[in-house]
Amino acid sequence: MTNHIALYEPLMPANTGNIARTCAATDTHLHLIEPLGFSTDDKHMKRAGLDYWAKVDITYHESLDAFLASLPADARLYLISKFSSKTYTDVDYTDTSLDHYFLFGKETTGLPEPFMRKNPEKALRIPMTENVRALNLSNSAAIIIYEALRQQAFTGLERAHRYEHDKLK
């Protein structure tokens, strides 16, 4: 079982960098669906301070269709959108025999509306007030992946940093 975060045509390198850091910290596979609004070459990533980029399991997809075609037949795909009646906490992510894919839309427009209309049963939202248009993409990805990991008992993740643990002895 693997957890996956997929970003549809991300525009902002800082968001993608923050999500990549979360993926590195949680052993989550990152999928980037092109076109991207920035370059991910080594020079740009180092300039952005993303020295952990090499520790991210990352796959690039030429299009949304290419990404969808790459999914295993038994994968669970979740579309993260503010236009859903089901919240991310309404889902059971504990089946460790399955891959869980969390697909996030472009920062400015979300996922394509025709695609969303075809798949409303896969849509999940993070509850929030109407005071803002949307939560930050990297914050949303962290909220969702950590809920899945919490339900999976944080399998494979350390509960405390060794240094902090040693100081408590």
Automatic annotation (TrEMBL):
- Per the UniProt entry, the Enzyme Commission number(s) are 2.1.1.207
Look up the record and give one Gene Ontology term from the biological process aspect.
Answer: methylation
Give start and end of each tRNA/rRNA methyltransferase SpoU type domain.
Answer: 4-146
Q: Does the keyword S-adenosyl-L-methionine apply?
A: yes
* Location in or out of the cell: Cytoplasm
- Highest rank taxon of the organism: Bacteria
Q: Where are the transmembrane segments?
A: none
Any one Gene Ontology MF annotation carried by this entry is: methyltransferase activity
Record keywords, A-Z: Cytoplasm, Methyltransferase, S-adenosyl-L-methionine, Transferase, tRNA processing
Give the catalysed reaction(s), semicolon-separated.
cytidine(34) in tRNA + S-adenosyl-L-methionine = 2'-O-methylcytidine(34) in tRNA + S-adenosyl-L-homocysteine + H(+); 5-carboxymethylaminomethyluridine(34) in tRNA(Leu) + S-adenosyl-L-methionine = 5-carboxymethylaminomethyl-2'-O-methyluridine(34) in tRNA(Leu) + S-adenosyl-L-homocysteine + H(+)
Residue positions binding S-adenosyl-L-methionine: 80, 105, 126
Please give the Pfam families that the UniProt record associates with this protein: SpoU_methylase
Q: What is its main location?
A: cytoplasm
Q: What does this protein do?
A: Could methylate the ribose at the nucleotide 34 wobble position in tRNA.
NCBIfam families assigned: tRNA_yibK_trmL
PANTHER family hit by this protein: TRNA (CYTIDINE(34)-2'-O)-METHYLTRANSFERASE
Tell me which HAMAP family the record gives.
tRNA_methyltr_TrmL
Question: Per the similarity annotation, which family is this?
Answer: Belongs to the class IV-like SAM-binding methyltransferase superfamily. RNA methyltransferase TrmH family. TrmL subfamily.
Q: What is this protein called?
A: Putative tRNA (cytidine(34)-2'-O)-methyltransferase
- Organism expressing this protein natively: Loigolactobacillus binensis
